[in-house]
Design brief:
CATH architecture: 3-Layer(aba) Sandwich
Oligomer: single chain
Number of domains: 1
Strand order of the largest sheet: 2-1-3-4-5-6-7-8-9
CATH topology: UDP-N-acetylmuramoyl-L-alanine:D-glutamate ligase
Helix content: 40-55%
Structural class: alpha/beta
InterPro entries: Hyethyz_kinase, Ribokinase-like
Radius of gyration: 17 Å
Strand content: 15-25%
Number of helices: 11
GO molecular function, one term: hydroxyethylthiazole kinase activity
Distance between the termini: 15 Å
Shape: globular
Catalytic activity: 5-(2-hydroxyethyl)-4-methylthiazole + ATP = 4-methyl-5-(2-phosphooxyethyl)-thiazole + ADP + H(+)
Largest sheet: 9 strands, mixed
Order of helices and strands: HEHEHEHEHEHHEEEHHHHE
Organism: Solibacillus faecavium
Pfam families: HK
CATH superfamily: Ribokinase
CATH class: Alpha Beta
Length: 280
């Protein structure tokens, strides 16, 4: 297992490479949060492009460094778009991030997420209940047969999703990030617990969605685990700092974007996190 210092060095390298290179991570994402996702990707140094048509998604998958797929608000065209682009990403070896929003609440959503199993997302990001439900849908360890997702909200704790997250990471060969009061990130062999953030993140729309988009930006330049850890770290830094400067969720969202933009590579790498080796 890499040391904490080695991981911090990799985080610094990832952040600096993104800021210098402005890599594109295209998105097929939640229409409720599409603006916030794009702005967050831009704030950390990436380039954003939002599409939903099959041919445009194929172009971005091939042209970009990574792709973000969020199933939050599904349109009928997504039945064609999403499996098509996921297959291309898998076959070309391009990194992609899956956010299984509200897994289990409808037949189209369930069918699409089931199809994604074969295409092995590079990073899966979700709340605890979504991670548990996705592992259940994919018949993996730690999953639940029935989704306990309440709309887009979790009813399970991050700790309760640990087994499911490990199983998903082992299946995909990538990383899983479970968002909550503290964030759990794993590649199936190690776990990082990232601290920080703000209670205001629960009071705005798109904190989790935009985190997935930012993870895709970092996935263009580093490993899945470091990309997910870096994204969680910059969110925890920015959330903690923004909370100190605002009085409510409206001003928090704007200040949060400012703090994402201002956070240095060293500040992100030094955000508090613990490491645990998995012995299974």
């Amino acid at each position: 297992m890499a040391t904490k210092q080695e991981m911090q060095n990799r985080i610094i390298q990832a952040v600096e490479t993104v800021k210098k290179g402005n890599p594109m991570a295209g998105s097929i994402t939640n229409t409720v949060t599409i603006n916030f996702v794009a702005n967050a990707q831009l704030a950390v140094g990436g380039s954003a492009a939002m599409v939903y048509l099959p041919d445009e998604a194929e172009f971005l998958a091939k042209a970009g460094g990574a792709t973000y797929i969020n199933v939050g608000t599904l349109l009928p065209i997504y039945e064609e778009t999403l499996p098509h682009v996921a297959k291309i990403l898998h076959e070309t070896g391009k990194p992609w991030v899956l956010d299984p929003v509200a897994v289990g609440i409808g037949s189209l959503r369930t069918d699409l997420l089931q199809k994604f199993k074969a295409f092995k997302p590079t990073i899966i990001r979700g709340n605890a209940s979504e991670i548990i439900a996705l592992a259940g849908l994919w018949a993996l360890d730690g999953g639940a047969e029935e989704s306990r997702v309440r709309g887009v909200d979790a009813t399970d704790s991050v700790h309760e999703a640990k087994r499911a997250a490990i199983a998903l990471a082992k299946w995909t060969g990538g990383a899983v990030a479970v968002s909550g009061e503290t964030d759990l990130i794993t590649d199936g062999s190690i776990i990082a617990i990232s601290y920080g953030g703000s209670h205001f993140m629960e009071k705005i729309t798109g904190a989790g969605c935009s985190l997935g988009g930012v993870a895709a930006v970092y996935a263009t330049v580093t490993t899945p685990f470091i990309a997910a850890l870096t994204a969680s770290a910059v969110y925890n830094v920015a959330g903690k700092r923004a909370e100190l400067k605002v009085d409510g969720p409206g001003s928090f969202q704007a200040q949060f974007l400012d703090e994402l933009y201002k956070a240095t590579a060293e500040e992100i790498a030094n955000n508090s996190f613990d490491l645990e080796e998995i012995n299974l």
